[in-house]
Specification:
Elements (H helix, E strand, L loop, with lengths): L1 E5 L2 E2 L2 E2 L16 E5 L16 E6 L2 E6 L4 E6 L6 E8 L4 E7 L6 E5 L6 E11 L4 E5 L3 E5 L6
Antiparallel strand pairs: 1-4, 2-3, 5-6, 6-7, 7-10, 8-9, 8-11, 11-12, 11-13
């Protein structure tokens, strides 16, 4: 089933993306067509407490650093598709993407600012950056955004 999620910009605030993007940051501002859009419920399955979570599929590798809320998206295949990190925020119910449409062998970084202990579901995808449609995606992985205590 194909569903459409639209990200809204209101008064300079990007709603549902965990913070303002940098000017050069690849972030969708159009409708994002998602395959199998429903992430797992936050209470089901195991929530990763790792500092860095990496997910790879043919054509894309994403890494999420839970300390600084940064997504690194690497395009790993010269297939004409972009690499994408798709993120569902269980606290707000919002969905966002970090797109790397710079070509094979390149990396894009999207910095976010999630509230401490926010539960996220993430997945690695490939997609068409123009219409913001996804081609193929990994399974969802649930992670916890947190800031470790200063020592």
């Amino acid at each position: 089933m194909l569903r459409s999620i639209t990200v809204l910009t209101l008064g300079g605030l990007l709603v549902g993306c965990g913070g303002m993007p940098e000017e050069s940051e690849p972030l969708e501002t159009q409708a994002l067509q998602l395959l199998d859009v429903a992430p797992p419920p936050a209470s089901e399955g195991e929530v990763s407490q790792n500092l860095v979570t990496t997910i790879s599929i043919p054509g894309a590798t994403i890494s999420y650093n839970s300390v600084n809320d940064a997504f690194t998206v690497r395009d790993t295949k010269a297939d004409g598709h972009s690499a994408v990190a798709v993120v569902y925020n269980h606290r707000t119910g919002s969905m966002a993407g970090c797109w790397n449409s710079n070509g094979s062998g390149t990396t894009a970084v999207c910095d976010r600012n999630y509230a401490s202990n926010t539960v996220l579901s993430i997945r690695a995808c490939t997609g068409e950056s123009g219409p913001r449609t996804l081609v193929t995606c990994s399974d969802w992985r649930t992670v916890n955004a947190f800031a470790p205590e200063a020592k």
